[in-house]
Design a protein that fits this description.
CATH superfamily of the largest domain: DHBP synthase
Bound molecules: threonylcarbamoyladenylate, magnesium ion
Number of domains: 2
CATH architecture of the largest domain: Alpha-Beta Complex
Number of strands: 15
Strand content: 15-25%
CATH topology of the largest domain: DHBP synthase
Helix content: 25-40%
CATH class of the largest domain: Alpha Beta
Strand order of the largest sheet: 7-1-2-6-3-5-4-8-9-10
């Protein structure tokens, strides 16, 4: 259900005051909820790393309400980046650009680049405009865990550690932003997300992928990330019913994230049919994984998603959340023995 997503003036004032006082504010964006601090206050930004349990070498995204003050954060903007900004901002696109001289190392992890995004969520826009500066924010979850797509997920993840939480309802994209970096006027995809590779290619021509030569650090590209606590295995699409049966031998409960209903009743399965549309599958993904994580099952089985570009961001997050991938056709070279 789509909720009304504007905050009251009192809520915004409280959040802005907290940011000015060097405190953290959790806020909604159209991708996932962010855990924000005043990007010009290094002590406040350091609290983000503390609360998340995130290693300090992992750089943060700075959020702005528009590209108006981009030059305060970025030394130079390639022409192609300006075109991407015009096409996709505000929206789920993050651009890694050469950082300006006064940007604090705590944000960039000491790198010479800074990641910038202009989010579209109306409450994020309200907050950024009222604050009038940049807000450094990662996803509002503990390091390595599932990103929050609802205010209650943030409460579950961070509890009292966050003084102010703006509730903007359910995030409509549901997966973290697309991240690109630049080599001259060439564009490289670092993390697939809500803006698809096809949309970027349509605008800029060629789009490179894979890590760059002087690889910027993208922690989401580590071995497990975006992960539930229950072991999770991706299984080939056609095998999901058979694998659910195999995993529930001996009356063990199994959780299943599929794209259709089960072919037959599985007595011990908690089965979610997330459907065949990448938009709604992506929007619901983290909430579905949270639900399955809490279902008291020994395993989560995920039906492999289609090998199409529209599913790239989803496949990327599933592979990172999975502790194992079963079957030979997944391209990862890992084979898992199911329970
Ligand atoms: O949708 C999103 O991007 C959300 C919302 C809150 O905006 N944020 C988010 O932040 O996903 P986080 O910290 O969970 O992921 C940010 C990613 C990390 O993988 C980080 O390494 C990368 O951005 N990043 C940040 N600065 C970078 C830089 N200078 N070079 C390369 N990657 C960078
Ligand atoms: Mg994150």
């Amino acid at each position: 259900m789509v909720r009304v997503v504007r905050a009251t003036q009192v809520e915004i004032d409280t959040a802005v005051q907290a940011l000015r006082n060097g405190e953290l504010v959790a806020f909604p964006t159209e991708t996932v909820y962010g855990l924000g601090a005043n990007a010009q206050n290094p002590a406040a930004v350091a609290k983000i790393f503390e609360v998340k349990g995130r290693p300090p070498s992992h750089p943060l995204i700075v959020h702005l309400d528009s590209p108006r003050f981009l030059h305060r954060w970025v030394r130079e903007v390639p022409q192609v980046a300006t075109r991407l900004a015009e096409a996709f901002w505000p929206g789920p696109l993050t651009m890694v650009l050469p950082r300006a001289g006064n940007v604090h190392d705590v944000i960039t992890g000491g790198q010479d680049t800074i990641a910038i995004r202009v989010p579209a969520h109306p409450m994020a826009q309200q907050l950024l405009t009222a604050f009038g500066g940049g807000i450094a924010a990662p996803s509002a979850n503990r390091f390595g865990r599932l990103s929050p797509t609802r205010a209650e997920h943030v409460r579950e993840e961070l509890g009292e550690a966050v003084r102010v939480l703006l509730d903007g309802g359910e995030c409509q994209v549901g997966l973290e932003s697309t991240i690109v970096c630049f080599e001259g006027e060439s564009v490289r995809l670092l993390r697939p997300g809500g803006v698809t590779a096809a949309q970027i290619r349509a605008l800029v021509g060629e789009l490179f992928s894979g890590p760059a030569g002087a690889a910027p650090r993208v922690p989401g590209s580590g071995p497990t990330h975006y992960a539930p606590t229950t072991p999770m295995t991706i299984v080939p699409a056609g095998e999901i019913d058979a694998q659910a049966d195999a995993a529930s031998v001996g009356a063990r409960r199994v959780a299943v994230l599929a794209q259709r209903l089960p072919l037959r009743a599985h007595k011990y399965a908690t089965w979610i049919n997330a459907g065949r549309r990448p938009e709604s599958y992506g929007r619901d993904l983290y909430n579905n994984l949270r639900t399955l994580d809490k279902a008291g099952c020994a395993h989560i089985l995920v039906q492999a998603v289609p090998d199409l570009e529209a599913w790239d961001a989803i496949r990327d997050r599933l592979v990172k959340a999975a502790t194992a991938v079963a079957g030979a056709d997944d391209g990862t070279g890992t084979r898992a023995v199911l329970p």
